[in-house]
Amino acid sequence: MADMQYLIDQARVFRARAAAHSLHLDGLAQQHRPRAMFISCSDARLVPALLTAARPGDLFELRTYGGVVPPYDTKTPTSESRTIGYAVDVAVSDIVVCSHSHCAVVTAAMSDNRTVSGVTGCDADAAPLTGDVTAAGHWHVLTQLDALANYPCVVPRLADRSLRLHAWFHELDTGATLHYHPRASAFLPL
């Protein structure tokens, strides 16, 4: 209960902390205009708002097991696909898909020397995750970005250039965040 008590205490003083940081909470109820959508792993060590210094209302967050973006399925919409659709509807102009080092999901896929259902994609042709764990993490986030790029709500926004997709990789042990640079075909520092 001691761990939970800390969270309860912080929730109780949230309004005071918000006021101390000049956060205007009253405006949040009036409009929903996030700067970007941030899709990441639900791992507690990766905190998108802390990483980006986002304030309430800045980020539309989607946290999933392994940061997985499932393939779009018209017959069986997922909560992830509905969340992505809603974010695109509120007209975010950028979507960041962020993976991280020491991801248990990627590590498990590597230790089993196979693809894990829902992690690396649902394609029968999906390659197993092998080799360097950092390279596997990079490949994993790019795979999720590819899945996202095929969502019907995303395709027209990419075509008219009103939406940009970004692949990020956060190194937990150093605090560095890298982004995928297509021209260099590499992850480089932000």
Quickly describe the structure.
This protein is α/β, with parallel strands linked by helices and 190 residues long. The chain is built from 7 helices and 6 strands, in the order ααβαβαβαααβββ.
Can you offer a commentary on this structure?
Helices cover about 35% and strands about 20% of the residues. It is built from seven helices and six strands. It has helices at about 1-10, 15-20, 50, 80-90, 105-110, 135-150, 155-160; strands at about 35-40, 60-65, 95-100, 165-170, 175-180, 185-190. A six-stranded mixed β-sheet has the order 2-1-3-4-5-6, with helices on one face. The N and C termini lie far apart (about 40 Å). Residues about 120-125 have low confidence and may be disordered.
Write the layout of secondary structure elements.
Blueprint (H helix, E strand, L loop, with lengths): L1 H11 L1 H7 L15 E6 L6 H5 L6 E6 L14 H11 L4 E7 L3 H8 L21 H17 L5 H5 L4 E7 L6 E5 L4 E4 L1
Parallel strand pairs: 1-2, 1-3, 3-4
Antiparallel strand pairs: 4-5, 5-6
